Amino acid sequence: MKVRIGAMALLGILAVVAFLGCVSEPTKPAEQKPVEQTKQVKIYGSGASFPAPQMENWISEFSKVNKNIIVEYASKGSGAGINDFKNKLVHFACTDPPAKESEWREFEKIGKPLQFPFIVGAVVVVYNLPVEDLRLDGETLAKIFMGEIEYWDSEEIKRLNPDAKLPHEKIMVIHRSDSSGTTEVFTTYLSMVSKEFKERVGAGKLVDWPVDKLGRGFGGKGNEGVSAMVKQTPNSIAYVELAYALHEKFKMVSIKNADGYFVKANSETIAAAVSASSAFVPDPFEGYKEDPKMFLNAKGKNSYPIVSFSHVLLWSSYPKDEAEAIKTFWKWVLTEGDKHIVEGYVAVPKEVADLALKAVESIRGE
Amino acid sequence: MDRFKILLLPSVSLAFGILLLMLITFFLNSWPIFEREGLAIYTSNIWRASEIPEEEFYGILAAIYGTVYTSLIAILIATPISIGLAVFVVDIAPRKIRELIVISTDIMAGLPTILYGIWGIFVLAPILSNFMVFLHDSFPFIPLFSYRNPTGYSFLTAGILLAIMVTPFATALIREAYAAIPPIYREGAHSLALTRYEATKLLLGYIKPAILAGILLAFGRAVGETVAVSLVIGNSFNIHPSLFAPGYTISSLIANQFGNAFAYSYMPHALFAAGLALFFIGLAVNLAGVLVLRRWRYA
Fold first, then answer.
1. 20 to 30 Å CA-CA from B165: which of A126, A197, A277, B26?
2. What pTM was estimated for this model as a whole?
């Protein structure tokens, strides 16, 4: 007994120390003093894993021309990014769906936020099955992700793939376990194309997947975690951001678009979806007014149906040095960024970039 | 009061103080979820997050189930192995082999758990998946095998991984106790002309409390393991009797959700309530241990 109490006390102390360590560790931008001699400024961002590969590329290209500004981006999901932003743990946060009005009001309690889209990407459905060019429509996808379709060779799937040799195997559905913008984009799309999905599951960063309760649902953390699980799991299906699917060389589902054509995601079909829809982007200072369904299920023969903006959240004022660094970086992204686009993304339309540029210009240093 | 007692006071009060403070913190932070949902947080299986607070609802039954299930698997596997190892090391092994085993189990006990997790996801899960499919296809009528899971993410995988992680821990405790049995008992047992097996059985009877303590600590460690389990259990809100089904545990739920919890109104409270559930599970297991010990003492 004595040993146990001692051990428990020790564990308790360790836990408290670890806890305190966690709390005090994150670098608060306000406390970051730039080193005087070199005038080096660090800016931090966190959030969506959706634009992370693109962000990394931009950051490395940007650092070649601006040696004094160091940008760091932590890919941990839109939900966590918004949370970091709210607590001023980071200078900027990336979120795929635009911030909700309720979140916006929270931000306004501590400062003046601004938000604009900075990159276009796509959510793709990937699978691990010895079948090439699988075709699905929105309604069938919804049924698969709700768990209503149990086997790969069921009628609904066969009908869309008459020539494919589909195995009589259970479909393993892999989804995100963390709060994720990718999930929100995907579930928003499924809610648009399936009334049943809208009622039973709904759209959100974190939804209660009915397929989990059937024992065929699995959760992975981040686009990275989901990718790892798909690779390991035969007969699985999942949704990830396009750049991850390309990087992992996953097989992608051709999805039936609004005009009835089966389309795979790539730069052209994403661009087609963007140009087919009217990109109404509100004033960056009223970012929450943006419609997250804007590019989803777009019309046009060549349009890929699950296309979405990724957004960045910024404050309209920062301490002086940091304000300059943030302005420099985001101006560079909006003007030079389109020369360094990673495969799987498309730059935002010119008028959207111009609007965003104006907002970035207005950031003040104090 | 003499000075020596005063000297010890800080450590005693610190131990209890921290425990008390932790309990209070967890209780206060989980209160809003109890107020809103009552005990449904523990009795329902839903994890519905939403930016609109009215639509949020959390029920961690699946995670509680998975926690108990995987930890039970872990100690069921770890207990016989660690007792066997302890007896082998103390009674039978030649000195060189003994040192080798002691050193290697001590190293295993101290390894960062993420290493086990990575090994679990890349080696253990694929091996087990074949085995699980075979067992299911051969004996589909046995409830424990009733789920066909070709993925490898399951209660069993998590349980075996946990067993591997806690065995060195339990072994060390049992081994020390077994080695500390006064030689006179050992000699006595042999002088009664007992066989080696009978003598060992008798001697193990003397260290029952130590064995129990080892199992309890192993259970506690298994219950609290986060990263390694979350990599192999499948993170699925699923309650299923089969060993081969995917699931969730409280610790892996907290590890998965804490990063984004504060983006929602009630999720942090739900996670604190989950932490409280862990505390209660630990308390229940320890109490059971104390009761068993007491019975042995009076027997």
1. B26
2. 0.80
